[in-house]
């Protein structure tokens, strides 16, 4: 059983804290794998929004956790408490995977964990994070960043994306998707997707790219071109591409590749199909193409990815 510790302090955002608790506190119905041992750690009672919270343990417990999660807090003008910063740094040095949600990135930056690393936070605070911590490579245009043992997310809903990403890393896509269905959220949004898209509210009567996306998902094992998808939506390629990006935050090609990778991951986790057959079913055509795209997405080759889940 993996242990997850939530590091809390006064003024933390209750949305991100509650979100992490919802994901890691209990396994959803039907999931039989050992779930997480969740603890809440802090220096005595803390105020979270309008609530008073009594942590289970002190901050020294963080260094015994497999994963430490640091939610954000509202007033980033205030430096994070030194005891929290020290405890998070010590946990990472002891081997913990450390993840921040929203403005929790300021704690990781203060601990030096983001120096020389790419990181993100809520788009409204990225400039401040970059100014206060110039050694951090701040990316304002992504949902989350996975650096292996150090992860950061943008704000609000992106925190859910990172939590689901952690579940996916630990238990595979199928279980992460089960958690997402229980929470009624999209099962997977790629970390590189834009976190903020300035656009007007969509007109309710205008054509959507949704039917074209549904068609593409039904036909991932075959050639799916941009022209095919545009035709399904009865749009020109140019209009379709613009509207697709407005609706999803990414280009059609980026979205399509992500769906192919997701299918390949599930087939690797759940079947004994050979890699070349999985490549065909996911629409990559060859094992070499699948290997290249999976390596880019998760950092491992198909055989290593499968072995990781078969060994659990």
TrEMBL record:
Keywords: Transcription, Transcription regulation. Gene3D superfamilies: 3.40.50.880, Homeodomain-like. CDD domains: GATase1_AraC_1. It comes from the Bacteria. Pfam families: DJ-1_PfpI, HTH_18. Residues 210-308 form the HTH araC/xylS-type domain. InterPro entries: Class_I_gatase-like, DJ-1/PfpI, Homeodomain-like_sf, HTH_AraC, INH-QAR. PROSITE patterns: HTH_ARAC_FAMILY_2. Transmembrane segments: none annotated. Signal peptide: none annotated. One of its GO terms (molecular function) is sequence-specific DNA binding. This is Helix-turn-helix domain-containing protein. It comes from Actinomadura geliboluensis. The lineage of its organism: Bacteria, Bacillati, Actinomycetota, Actinomycetes, Streptosporangiales.
